[in-house]
Design a protein that fits this description.
Layout: E1 4-5, H1 6-12, H2 19-27, E2 32-33, E3 36-37, E4 43-44, E5 49-54, E6 57-63, H3 73-76, E7 80-82, H4 84-103, H5 113-124
Antiparallel strand pairs: 1-4, 2-3, 2-5, 5-6, 6-7
Length: 128
């Protein structure tokens, strides 16, 4: 296979759960192919560099193979290789998020009656 549509490839490589979600991300300008925004009909070829957002992370992958069939995750990982810079950036951002979440304290429990009234009073206030 020489080329396949980018929305099908992203779906087959398991970056998106459905082709509709892949199409929405592409049309929203979130996916970049060799540094440029693309349309859903763009043909993916081996050796291309694709930037794909996934949750909080931004994956930068090199296309190794093309496929239009969705297979298991181990087979899907053989379609691409993540760049070392992307992997290092994702790991550092994950560590930053983990440390930021540790700094935040969780609530002690459910609010009591007085606290509930204060919350409701606060929610009723209108910004001026």
């Amino acid at each position: 296979m020489t080329g396949v549509r980018i929305d099908k490839w992203l779906w087959a490589a398991r970056f998106f759960k459905t082709r509709a979600l892949a199409k929405k991300a592409i049309e929203g300008g979130k996916v970049h192919y060799n540094g440029a925004r693309v349309k859903t009909s763009k043909t993916v070829e081996p050796g291309a560099l694709i930037k794909v957002p996934q949750g909080w992370d931004l994956w930068e992958v090199e296309v190794l193979a093309v496929s239009d069939q969705r297979r298991g995750a181990p087979e899907a990982r053989e379609l691409y290789r993540e760049t070392p810079e992307s992997q290092a950036r994702r790991e550092s951002e994950t560590e930053k998020r983990r440390l930021a979440n540790q700094a935040m304290s969780a609530p002690q429990g459910r609010p009591d009656k007085k606290q509930r009234r204060e919350i409701q009073r606060f929610q009723r206030q209108r910004p001026e």
